[in-house]
Structures are given as structure tokens and as C-alpha cells.
């Protein structure tokens, strides 16, 4: 069962070492490598029109001409969709949970109907490139307008409508079904790129993860939700965030501002930039600490990454370069919708980004 996959991930580090002695380690890695090549979305054909000037040499299948140069799809890429869900917990039992801030909320277990899956307030696409040994991160604005599949409360399909991409996760069970539908929406937004896996985390996990790595230091970008009064923290201050502060810093926003979500996304990117090295320092040479972090996540996470896939990623990608300081975002423009802000991508800029991330230049 998919709901048991999290428990398998927690045990993974121990099993890796025992598997070495048992001679099954290489088998797990091979299985994981092959399974990660799957695509979890329904369509994976990238739809970018190739530029074909008169007299140009005929291109091979899978190649395209872009800005006078020839590119071909990098089929060895691994893409993982990371989702931050606006429910307090992604526990499987659906019981009420109490956050460290003292508020009791309904857990984001299985939704009561097909409209209560929770919104994907944070969307990051990890692009893992074995050719360059790099991991690039694409931050997706939650208000990005795209094709969203919709259902009614009874589960009857209503059709596809132009909506904010964060809403897609809400049309489903709040767990695997919602995650798969969100992955499809992200793939369509990026003109058909394949997505190989997903990890969805309840926003309340931020508090525990932040404190598990000893806090995260940031230079405060703005007074969020009355921070100056509540914590005595002001814009420009350098602080090590506690769990509660980190939660508010990456989630709160001023709804009166037109660019409130863009400001929040900037803070999320800043926090991620500081969080990654904090994690590396915490788990360096300490398998027990690494397992502890997975244990923290286990009650807040839904993922389709199984034991073999995790084993492959943990051994193959851990030393890859992650340039979190240059997290990229598709360019777009903000518009006022009937009720909420709407973010429209610039198609040409999006195509340029897709070629940069998913294609490699080849000589003619």
C-alpha cells in the first residue's frame, strides 16, 4: 500500500547497510534506477515548436531548433515534484493534530469529499541531471493560471478549466490521488514534461524540521503578520528562526498587497536556500540524525518514492551540486481576477526555460 511507503523510507538507511552484507544492495539500486524512469503523468510529450528556417538540415527525432541552435531532450533527467500543502498534517488516519503553536486543526489525511484535498501553497520542481551532477530547482507561483481538472463532491468529472495551479491538489482525496492530479497539472503547465515522482508535505512540518536542524538563519525580508510587534523582529534583522517563526515566515502574507504571493515565494526561496546547508551540517556523518529527520516527516508526508527508488537517490544524488541560491521561476505577470490574484506565464520565456532545463545542445 502507498500509505506504508513512508515507513519504508524511514527504515531505508538501516536497510541499505544490511543489504550490503546480504548482497542485495546493488539489486535495490538497479530496481530504483529503473523505476525512477517511469512517468507518473498521463502525457509526457513536450510541445515546443521547432524553428525550421528554409534550407535547414533535417533534425533527428527528439531534436528541435531553438534560437538558431539544435537541442535534444535529456532523457536521463529525474524530476521530483515537491508540494507544501496548506493543511496541518498529512497523517494517514485523518485524526486531529495540535501544532506547536497550540492550535488544533483537522489533519490532512484522506479528505471528506473530492473538494477538500488542500491547496498546494508551495510548489517546487527538482530537476536532477546525472550528466552534470546538478540538481536545479524551479519555484512555481501558486497563482499561476493553467488547465486544472475539476470534480464535484461526489467524484464526478466536470471538465478542465483555467484556474490557479495550487487549486488542483484540492480536487481529490488529499493524498495520493490529489498528488497525482497535481503532478499532471504541473506537467501540462510545462508543456508536457515528464514527472517521475512526488513528495507532499504538510506545512506544519516546517516547525519540527526547522528545530531539528537547530534553527535556520535568515535576513528578514519584511514584517510578516505583525512580526515586529509579536517577536520584536524587524525587516533587515539577521535572526535564527525558531519553529513557530519559521512556519509564519514561509506561510503568512499580506493579502492587501497585489504581489503578496510573490513576496511570500521570495521568502520561501530564501528559507530553502538557508535550510539546505543546515540539513547537510546536521546529518553529516550521522545516519541516526538523518533517520530522525525522516521520522519527523513521516506523519506529515505523502510520497510515491518507494524503498528501491530512495536507495538509488540516496546513494546516487547525495553529492550532486544544489545551487539553491539560483532557484529559477517562470516569468509572468500578475493580474487581478474576479476574486483572487492571477499569474500568467510568458509563453516564450517558459519555452526558453524548458529548453534550458530539459534539453542539451548538440552539434548539427
Could you characterize what this model shows?
The chain has helices spanning 5-22, 25-36, 176-189, 205-212, 227-231, 243-251, 260-283, 287-298, 307-316, 347-358; strands at residues 63-66, 69-73, 78-85, 97-98, 104-105, 120-129, 134-140, 145-151, 157-164, 197-202, 216-219, 238-241, 301-303, 321-322, 332-336, 341-345, 359-361. The protein is an alpha+beta fold and 364 residues long. The protein folds into two domains: 2-204 and 300-361, Nucleotidyltransferase, domain 5 (2-Layer Sandwich), CATH 3.30.420.590; 205-299, 3-Layer(aba) Sandwich (Aminopeptidase), CATH 3.40.630. Strands 13-10-3-6-7-14 form a six-stranded mixed sheet, with helices on both faces. Strand 6 (120-129) and strand 7 (134-140) form a beta hairpin. Mean pLDDT is 79; it is low at 1-25 and 91-109.
Write the element-wise H/E pattern from the N-terminal end onward. Answer: HHEEEEEEEEEHEHEHEHHHEHEEEHE
Question: Helix count, per DSSP?
Answer: 10
> What is the CA–CA distance across the termini?
48 Å
Classify the secondary structure makeup into a structural class: alpha+beta
CATH architecture of the largest domain, by name, is 2-Layer Sandwich
Mean pLDDT: 79
CATH topology of the largest domain: Nucleotidyltransferase, domain 5
Query: What value does the Rg take, in angstroms?
Result: 21 Å
Q: How much β-strand is present in the residues?
A: 15-25%
The figure for the number of domains is 2
Write down how many β-strands occur, each being a DSSP E stretch of 2 or more residues. 17
Amino acid at each position: 500500500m502507498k500509505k506504508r511507503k513512508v515507513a519504508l523510507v524511514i527504515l531505508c538507511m538501516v536497510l541499505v547497510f544490511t543489504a550490503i552484507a546480504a548482497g542485495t544492495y546493488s539489486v535495490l539500486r538497479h530496481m530504483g534506477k529503473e523505476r525512477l524512469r517511469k512517468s507518473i503523468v498521463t502525457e509526457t510529450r513536450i510541445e515546443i515548436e521547432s524553428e525550421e528556417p528554409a534550407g535547414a538540415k533535417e533534425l533527428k527525432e527528439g531534436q528541435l531548433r531553438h534560437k538558431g541552435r539544435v537541442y535534444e531532450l535529456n532523457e536521463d533527467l529525474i524530476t521530483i515534484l515537491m508540494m507544501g500543502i496548506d493543511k496541518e498534517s498529512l497523517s494517514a488516519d485523518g485524526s486531529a493534530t495540535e501544532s506547536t503553536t497550540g492550535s488544533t486543526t483537522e489533519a490532512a489525511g484522506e479528505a471528506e469529499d473530492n473538494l477538500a484535498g488542500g491547496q498546494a501553497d508551495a510548489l517546487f520542481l527538482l530537476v536532477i541531471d546525472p550528466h552534470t551532477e546538478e540538481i536545479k530547482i524551479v519555484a512555481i507561483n501558486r497563482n499561476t493560471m493553467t488547465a486544472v481538472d475539476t470534480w464535484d463532491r461526489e467524484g464526478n468529472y466536470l471538465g478542465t478549466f483555467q484556474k490557479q495551479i495550487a487549486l488542483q491538489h484540492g480536487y481529490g482525496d488529499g493524498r495520493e490521488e490529489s498528488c497525482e492530479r497535481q503532478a499532471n497539472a504541473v506537467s501540462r503547465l510545462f508543456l508536457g514534461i515528464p514527472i517521475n515522482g512526488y513528495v507532499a508535505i504538510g506545512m506544519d512540518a516546517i516547525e519540527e524540521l526547522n528545530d531539528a536542524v537547530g534553527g535556520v538563519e535568515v535576513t528578514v525580508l519584511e514584517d510578516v503578520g505583525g512580526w515586529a510587534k509579536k517577536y520584536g523582529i524587524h525587516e533587515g534583522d539577521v535572526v535564527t528562526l525558531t519553529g513557530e517563526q519559521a512556519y509564519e515566515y514561509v506561510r503568512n502574507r499580506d493579502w492587501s498587497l497585489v504581489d503578496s504571493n510573490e513576496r511570500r515565494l521570495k521568502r520561501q526561496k530564501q528559507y530553502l536556500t538557508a535550510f539546505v546547508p543546515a540539513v547537510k551540517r546536521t546529518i553529516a556523518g550521522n545516519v541516526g540524525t538523518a533517520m530522525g529527520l525522516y521520522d519527523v516527516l513521516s506523519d506529515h508526508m505523502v510520497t510515491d518514492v518507494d524503498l528501491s527508488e530512495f536507495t538509488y537517490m540516496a546513494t546516487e544524488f547525495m553529492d550532486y551540486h544544489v545551487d539553491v541560491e539560483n532557484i529559477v521561476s517562470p516569468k509572468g505577470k500578475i493580474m487581478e481576477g474576479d476574486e483572487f490574484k492571477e499569474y500568467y506565464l510568458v509563453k516564450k520565456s517558459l519555452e526558453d526555460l524548458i529548453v534550458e532545463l530539459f534539453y542539451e545542445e548538440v552539434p548539427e
